[in-house]
Amino acid sequence: MSDLLYVYAVARAPLEGVPASTEGVGGAPVRPVEGDGLIAVVSDVRAEDFEEAPLRKHLEDLDWLSGTARAHESVVRAVSDVTGVVPLRLATVCRGESGVRRLLDEGYDRFTSNLDRLEGHVEWGVKLYATAQAEPAKEPASVEAPSSGRDYLRRRLRSRQSRERNWAQADALARRLHTELAGHAEAQRLHRPQSGELARADGVNVLNAAFLVRRAESEAFVGLVERLTPQEPGIRVEVTGPWAPYSFADLSDPREGRVGA
Q1: What does pTM read for this prediction?
Q2: DSSP labels, 220-260
Q3: Which UniProt key words apply to this protein (predicted)?
């Protein structure tokens, strides 16, 4: 049996109320490991998946990464539903319970300061997409063909200018939305816009932001997003959450994401 333990999150002891049926990576049951007043939520994982060399390969496999991320989020959500939590990065692995307790001991000040700051807060994600509808429609076949090269270039110019106006409008809305929402949140983070397979949505991701909001104010925050979103073709705003505050956990431990000694 592997002695590797996957660490999902850290909370204060005692930890009660997490469903016993909660499963982690690979369907393994989760359990707490306590150290110095803190609790690490862990599960056993296979060495052939999480030793350093195979883990590097797995992190390039989007299907494996997606399944692991879903299991990770499921456990973190189960814990955050009952207590304040510091979510750890994907694939944080330690060697045995002694390695987990060493992680808690070495990171004690970081964990406790984060728990103090994040208690009672959740993360909401807001993304704005400029969708394909923002592109000017193709001219119908019945439109008379350009009579000259100059006419053709003129039409191409108008089409390009129309697209540029659409993108400028989407960019202006993204900036306004971010500014307004930041004023109603405890903190905000701007992430790099998603593209390719990571976007998994129609359109171009113009805004990808996270907001730290008091849990009790979540409904008001989502309502504000809805009021600020114009009903315009070519613009789509996506709100996700509430999540554990991943984007706001300030942990810079070089051990994270690697196998503990």
Answers
A1: 0.76
A2: HHHHHHHHHS---TTEEEEEEEEE--GGG-----TTTTS--
A3: Gas vesicle
